[in-house]
Each structure stands twice: as structure tokens, then as C-alpha cells.
Design a protein that fits this description.
membrane, DUF6056 family protein, about 65% helix, globular, DUF6056, transmembrane helix, transmembrane
Length: about 325
């Protein structure tokens, strides 16, 4: 599939495309270990083409760069320091727990109805796109199993890696990174299925009536704005179970901006303090999609020590 993709014919445009691709391959793995799990999944899915030598060398080189960058980011010493603070379980137990947690996450992702409604809304448009041979998406969806396998393997690796590292599912901020990859994999999988059905002579889908599309769009908007408080607990009001919804809540409420201002004020205080020990004020807000843990009032905690080392200080702690 990748081997059949065509870059622009103009040499300058081709060079720009390759430079951008190499930069992305180098930098993207550093954002999160979750992305690296999907890179590993991509390698596995492309193995048949790599072994048969049908994948062109430039693409193999680009994939190699991404794999090396992912390995460097994943094997960073800080990851092992954090992992060492957890009580680990055996591999089989981690596999079972990660599979159960991933299944539960799938229920959460799809039970809200947002993804299903969006899929129904875009089905006719996707069908038109995959039926146009001039568009890249047509070549991307030639192999019907490629995207579903990549998506499922990537998700499975994310959850297994998380259980092996921290004995639990990925935190909210990690799931926020997983969600766009899930959406890409999901819609490309749907596009691949549509392409396959069209090639098999299936009847093209008809466009939904305007009033149906409008009603479904309004329902999607309402679901996005809802906190999806499925437990009906008063203490959970305004705290969405959907991490994407929570991310928008953190952004639009101003909590994310307030958190950023307070962190910047902390950094300024630390840099302007000449002493080796610094006491910083607590955070008034901790958006759940941005903050996993804050440093504590105990300067001996590993998080505090790492924080102090980063700023070249002996000790930094929060004054509560």
C-alpha cells in the first residue's frame, strides 16, 4: 500500500515532503509512549511488505527513523525510574488486565454514541472519496485489513505497555493522545470497508435527508457538551467520563489557561531564586487532562527530586 504512494514530481516539492516526513518521524515519538505503541503496530502490519521487499527503500528508511526515535524515547531513564516505584505483576496478569481495560474503554468510547453518529453522517462522503482514484485515500484503503489491524494492535500495545509500566490503564492525558489515533484508525477502517464493498459491486449508499443530518449533527453537539454522567452521582456532575469532552471542558472553562499561568509563575520564581532550595505555591486548578500528579510538600519524593534536578536545584517543594 505505502509502496504505491506517489510524491510530487517537482524535485523541490519532493525534497520538502521528505524533510517534513523525516522531522515528523524524529520528533513525533517523543510526545508520548502511546504514539510509539502505534509505531510498533505499524511495523508489525507492514512486515509482510517489508519481507517481500515490496516496500520501497525510502519508506523503509523513514520507518526505521521513527522506530529508532521511538526506542530512544521509550528507553529513556526517566521511564524506568517512574516504573520502579510501582508494584509490578507478571506478564500474563498484565495482558489480562490490559485486555479487560481496553474492552471497557471501547464501551466508553462507543456507548456515548458520538463516534457512531459521526460515522453515519460521513459514510456517504467517505464513499465518494474512496471511489475517486485520483485521491490518496483510495490508495491508502486498498488493503481492507490494514487500518483495523493497525488500530487494534496500537490500542492493545498502549494498554499493555501502561500496565507493564505503571500497573494501570493509561492516564487521562495519554488517552487524549490515543483518541485521535483511534479516530484516524476507525474512519480509515470504515473507508477501507467501503472501498472493498464498492470494488465487490455493492450498491452505493444514498445521502441522508437534510433534516436527518441536521438532527444527528445537533445530537452530536449535545453529546459532546454533555458530561456523560452515566453513574448519576452528584459528585460526578461536571466531570465527564469522556476524556475528549473533559479536554474541551478544561479548555473552555479557563482552567487550562489558569494552570498554564500558575506553572509559568512557578518557573519564573524558581529561575529567579538564587538559593538551592525553593518553596513554590500550590496550584489552584489541576485540569485532569493536563495534570497527572503535582510535586508534593515532601522534597524527598522522587517527583520532587526529578523536578529539582531539572531546574538545577537541591530541593523544591510545595507549600500547602
Amino acid at each position: 500500500m505505502v509502496a504505491k504512494l506517489h510524491l510530487p514530481q517537482n524535485k523541490v516539492s519532493r525534497l520538502i515532503c521528505w524533510v517534513i516526513a523525516i522531522i515528523l518521524a524524529l520528533l513525533t515519538p517523543g510526545f508520548s509512549e502511546m504514539i510509539n505503541c502505534f509505531i510498533l503496530a505499524l511495523v508489525i502490519v507492514l512486515l509482510p511488505q517489508i519481507r517481500s521487499r515490496s516496500l520501497q527503500r525510502p519508506w523503509i528508511g523513514l520507518l526505521t527513523i521513527a522506530v529508532v526515535a521511538a526506542a530512544v524515547a521509550t528507553l529513556a531513564p526517566g521511564n524506568f525510574v517512574r516504573s520502579a516505584s510501582y508494584q509490578h505483576v507478571d506478564l500474563l496478569h498484565s495482558v489480562v488486565l490490559s485486555a479487560a481495560s481496553l474492552g471497557y474503554s471501547f464501551i466508553g468510547w462507543f456507548s456515548s454514541g458520538i463516534l457512531i453518529l459521526l460515522t453515519l453522517l460521513v459514510l456517504p462522503a467517505l464513499q465518494r472519496l474512496v471511489n475517486d482514484p485520483a485521491l490518496p485515500i483510495t490508495r491508502f484503503t486498498r488493503i481492507v485489513w490494514f487500518w483495523p489491524l493497525w488500530m487494534l494492535l496500537g490500542l492493545a500495545f498502549c494498554y499493555l505497555f501502561s500496565y507493564l509500566a505503571i500497573d494501570g490503564p493509561p492516564p487521562s492525558r495519554a488517552r487524549n493522545l490515543i483518541m485521535p489515533l483511534l479516530i484516524i484508525g476507525w474512519f480509515m477502517s470504515i473507508a477501507g470497508i467501503l472501498s472493498y464493498l464498492l470494488r465487490r459491486g455493492a450498491t452505493p449508499l444514498q445521502r441522508l435527508p437534510t433534516y436527518v443530518r441536521l438532527g444527528m449533527s445537533l445530537l452530536v453537539l449535545l453529546l459532546v457538551l454533555s458530561d456523560q454522567n452515566i453513574t448519576l452521582k452528584r459528585s460526578r456532575i461536571g466531570q465527564p467520563t469522556n476524556s475528549v469532552t473533559q479536554a474541551y471542558r478544561d479548555w473552555l472553562s479557563g482552567d487550562a489557561a489558569q494552570y498554564n499561568r500558575e506553572e509559568e509563575a512557578r518557573y519564573t520564581l524558581i529561575r529567579q531564586t538564587l538559593a538551592d532550595s525553593v518553596v513554590i505555591p500550590p496550584l489552584s486548578v489541576q485540569p485532569v487532562t493536563l495534570v497527572w500528579w503535582d510535586i508534593s510538600e515532601n522534597p524527598a519524593m522522587w517527583g520532587n527530586r526529578a523536578y529539582a534536578d531539572y531546574f538545577h536545584k537541591k530541593a523544591i517543594w510545595v507549600k500547602l
